[in-house]
Recover the amino acids of this structure.
């Protein structure tokens, strides 16, 4: 995934060719309301809206790149194709969101510059998504947790008062519903299979769950960001916990995935952890507050925190070095 974003963006379906959205996915919103209404475009610049757009776009791009790394090495052909398709969708969603930022004047109006022209400290993706690919169980666990988050997030963002974001979110929600169903099926089937399949997935969930806390890390100007998001972080996390819990119960994994974080219900960053990360405190002190010294996949913030503040694991720099190599070789090239 080293070329320009528009090269990976799926082409729009011809009129009448789009299948009906799965159950629970909101319909595409109607035309924008008149200026001054609740759905009128946001005045620019708005720092909270910009922070939200960067976090949303960076999550999608990094998740898509990691998914693309399974192309050719997935356990069997059908899943090879599935991960390639999912990767293309995620990168396309990132491109759509970077274009909104470009329209607000960021990156000199060039979404490729936003995706490929920043260093690690400029990215606001959750640390969960940047970790290097491990075994298949860990990958299923990561994508399951992230897609359950997206399943709650995007329908809410489709009600954003910023019409361009609301329209983009409605499109993204329809596509993400298929990703969500895919990983739910994997979790249920592996959990019900018993034996090594169940044991490996349970162990992976226990390891990955703590890092999922970073999905709910507050953004800069979080109060206003929640306005543009259409849902508060507390509401988002509560709904996510409920959805994850239902699937794990169905898979027979609700107890097995408890792990050191106390399971889904116990996954909550502590106040000292957040203070150390958001108020300029010592990162090592934040890790000490965690009460454990073992990392997730790689050393990052306490329980996966820090990504929304631009603090990342070494894995992100390695990912960006590879992903941006073509762009950096000729930044002004036309494709």
């Amino acid at each position: 995934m080293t070329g320009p974003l528009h090269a990976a963006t799926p082409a729009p379906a011809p009129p009448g060719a789009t299948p009906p959205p799965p159950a629970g996915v909101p319909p595409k919103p109607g035309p924008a309301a008149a200026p001054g209404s609740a759905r009128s475009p946001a005045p620019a610049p708005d720092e909270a809206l910009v922070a939200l757009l960067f976090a949303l776009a960076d999550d999608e791009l990094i998740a898509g790149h990691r998914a693309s790394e399974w192309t050719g090495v997935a356990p069997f052909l059908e899943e090879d194709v599935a991960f390639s398709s999912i990767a293309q969708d995620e990168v396309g969603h990132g491109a759509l969101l970077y274009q909104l930022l470009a329209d607000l004047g960021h990156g000199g109006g060039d979404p490729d510059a936003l995706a490929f022209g920043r260093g690690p400290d400029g990215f606001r993706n959750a640390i969960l998504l940047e970790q290097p690919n491990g075994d298949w169980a860990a990958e299923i666990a990561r994508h399951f947790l992230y897609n359950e988050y997206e399943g709650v997030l995007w329908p809410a963002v489709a009600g954003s008062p910023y019409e361009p974001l609301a329209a983009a979110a409605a499109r993204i929600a329809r596509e993400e519903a298929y990703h969500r169903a895919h990983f739910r099926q994997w979790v249920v089937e592996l959990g019900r299979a018993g034996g090594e399949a169940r044991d490996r997935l349970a162990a992976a969930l226990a390891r990955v769950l703590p890092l999922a806390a970073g999905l709910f890390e507050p953004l800069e100007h979080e109060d206003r960001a929640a306005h543009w998001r259409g849902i508060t972080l507390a509401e988002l996390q509560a709904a996510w916990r409920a959805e994850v819990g239902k699937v794990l119960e169905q898979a027979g994994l609700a107890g097995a995935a408890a792990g050191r974080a106390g399971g889904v219900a116990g996954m909550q960053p502590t106040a000292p952890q957040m203070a150390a990360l958001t108020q300029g405190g010592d990162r090592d002190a934040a890790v000490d507050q965690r009460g454990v010294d073992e990392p997730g996949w790689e050393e990052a913030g306490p329980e996966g925190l820090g990504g929304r503040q631009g603090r990342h694991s070494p894995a992100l720099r390695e990912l960006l070095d590879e992903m941006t190599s073509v762009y950096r070789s000729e930044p002004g090239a036309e494709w």
